Amino acid sequence: RYRVREYCEMMRREFGGLKVVMLWQLYPNIGVDSRNQLDWFRELPGGLPALAEAVRAFHAEGVRVVMNYSSWDIDTRREPLPDVQALPAFLREIGGDGIFMDVGTYALPFQPAFDTFNRGATVGPEITPLLQSAQGPFAVTSSWAQTVKPYGNRGVMIHKWIIPEHMQWRIHRFSRNRMNELSFTWINGQGLIVWENVFGQMIPWTATERQALRKLSAIRATFADLYASDTSKPYLPTNNPEIDASSWENDTTRIWNLAVASATPPKNGTVRFAADPRFTHYYDLWTGEPLAPSPADGKLAVTVQRVGCVVGLRAAPAGPVADTLARLSAEHARPLPADDPHVRVLSLKLPQPPPVPDRPAQVDLVAGFLPVAAGERAFEVKHPRREGECYPDLDAKSENDYTIVKPEGGRVELVVHHHRETLPAFAIAPRVVTNGEFARFLTASGYRPSDPQNFLKHWGGATCPAALRDRPVTYVSLTDARAYAAWAGLRLPTEWEWQTAAEAQGAAFVYNEVWEWTESERFDGHNASAILRGGCATWKLSTSRWYFGGGTLGSTPAPGGANPPDFHVKYYLMADGIDRAATLGFRCVAAPR
Asked: Could you write out the DSSP letters of every residue in 170-214?
């Protein structure tokens, strides 16, 4: 189920809340078969009714919902309608509030269609749009500030400065120091994207970063009208070249955002700047404490570690402003955890151990298995580097320590794994399990999956068509494959057993009929994944490198088709129904019990 309330409560507790949540459904598993980006929404647990209910639950929490749209998805199944019609219809069905244009820069031609049912729907591209695209009746109304390049932490977000209501959310997805992003965002009075689970790679915010964002979120919520006004005065004079100041104002209030210009704390954290004589009550919003201009020169003095804020008021604080001051004072006094559970991520170096069969192997099923002798073996595995990364080698210095090579003149980044393992003797199936063999298992065991979505979808019914009996079984989850293996007194191969057999057995070991499950499941406390071996020779893509099996960092050919035995890919697990794919099957091994 969708745990919307729990998620929103966590975001309020750790980050001070959120205004918008983005649903990103397709990457990095899209391309494993013909399912398109909308199919990956449809096949989430509970289907579209559950997704629409989740959107309503977010709305009840005061959170808007936007969905991702990837224009590069053109190799998979096509919708009956063109995307310009299919996407608005889909957004309307789930009750969403807009779309994020993955690698896009524009709103047309989607905005007119959205306006027919939701005038508030937003179109926000990943790439910084031209100013011409951010104005007019079909304007891009928000965007990521991902491609904005500050000088240190300095720079004016020109879209915000010229069009104050245009919201740019700053993001540097692989940054491990979010204080820099906070500084640049804050000096511009802009928004920020909290992205900790980057396509399956965990990069948690630290306790210090989360506390800073809780403060900034409270300030921005209280003075939202100021930050959306056209009164921005960026980079006002201060006495400290290490600390910048920008301000916004109206008749009753003036607010100064302060930020350190460099990537490290300042040598001198005290900044002095001129107070505004129109205002008589001043507060350091970072601490919630009152301030007073110096009688000598009328300047305010504030200490800033990375970011800060000062507000000037015509009257004594009351109502929401007084509440925010009390909240900020309490937050400033709140101790940070010595042992922070929020940043805890489990190691991915070792997979879960394979299950041990609880019965002898069925003799007739292993009659043709290929024997593999025991021994210590050294392995090398290469694969295109993807944004979800992979797992570290056993001797890696950290979870993010990978060997990266750039063959082909440096155009492609490859992750190279080196692994040594002593394998006991085993015997492995010469090819993947067939539909006929799986049908026998169903009849003999009475197995029925708890999640039947997509289970044996290609059969088109409860029984296996005769034409498919000798073809690889697909549309089976890791759970289904393990159930078959346990019934047979077998198990799935580890990826090292698989590679050993593929490299040693030659043509007798048939692979690349379909992708193959292996016993390689890993869980970092947030994301579950398994390693697939082989490939599917009959499923080839022709366009985007972002499809499953391809690399995102560098220019690579479109993925798909057959792969060598020293290739693997990480497949993220969510639920059995959506994990099942038209190109994914398995084989078994008989190993010592």
From this structure: E--TT-S-HHHHHHHHHHTT-EE----EETTEE-PPPHHHHHHHH
Whether 201 maps to a domain, the answer reads no
The domain boundary residue, chosen from 144, 178, 196 = 144
Q: How many Å separate Cα 345 from the centre of its chain?
A: 15
Residue 399 structural domain: 363-590
470 domain residue, yes or no: yes
Residues 72 and 61: their CA atoms lie apart, in Å, by 33
pLDDT along the chain (593 residues), means of 10: 96 97 95 98 96 98 96 95 94 95 83 85 88 81 84 84 87 88 92 94 96 97 95 94 96 97 87 95 97 95 95 97 98 95 96 94 93 97 89 94 80 90 97 98 98 98 98 99 98 98 97 98 97 96 90 72 96 98 98 79
Using a cut of 0.90, tell me whether the model's pTM lies above it.
yes
Number of domains composing the chain: 2
Cβ contact 143:128 at 8 Å: yes
User: Tell me, what's the pLDDT at 409?
Assistant: 66
Nearest C-alpha neighbor of 302 from the set 313, 292, 312, 314: 292
Q: Which of 144, 171, 190 is the last residue of a domain?
A: 144
Crossing angle for the helix pair 478-487 and 435-445, to the nearest 10 degrees: 70
The greatest distance separating any two alpha carbons of the chain, rounded to the nearest whole angstrom, comes to: 96
Q: What pLDDT score does 314 carry?
A: 97
Residue 554's pLDDT is 63
- Asked whether residue 154 is assigned to any structural domain, the reply reads no
**What would the pLDDT profile of 329-372 be if each residue is shown by its tens digit?**
999 999 999 999 999 999 999 999 999 999 999 999 999 999 99
**CATH code at 483?**
3.90.1580
CATH at 106:
3.20.20.80
Q: Are 567 and 383 in contact (CB under 8 A)?
A: yes
What single-letter DSSP state applies at residue 341?
Answer: G
The DSSP secondary-structure symbol of 166 reads -
> H helices then E strands: how many in the chain?
15, 29
- Distance of alpha carbon 166 from alpha carbon 494, whole angstroms: 51
Per-residue pLDDT of 52-110, as tens digits, reads 999 999 999 999 999 999 999 999 999 999 999 999 999 999 999 999 999 888 777 88
Entry field: residues in the chain = 593
CB 218 within 8 A of CB 324: yes
User: Token match 């579209």: residue?
Assistant: 48
The separation between the first and the last C-alpha atoms of the chain, rounded to the nearest angstrom, is 37
Q: Which two tokens stand for residue 588?
A: 């078994």
Q: Output Rg (C-alpha) for the chain, integer angstroms.
A: 28
Ranges of H-type helices in 338-465: 407-410, 435-445
**57 with 18: CB under 8 angstroms?**
no
Rounded Cα–Cα distance for residues 50 and 59 (Å): 14
CB 98 within 8 A of CB 63: no
Q: What is the pLDDT of residue 377?
A: 97
519 within a domain of the structure (yes/no): yes
Handedness of CA 505, 506, 511, 516 (dihedral sign): positive
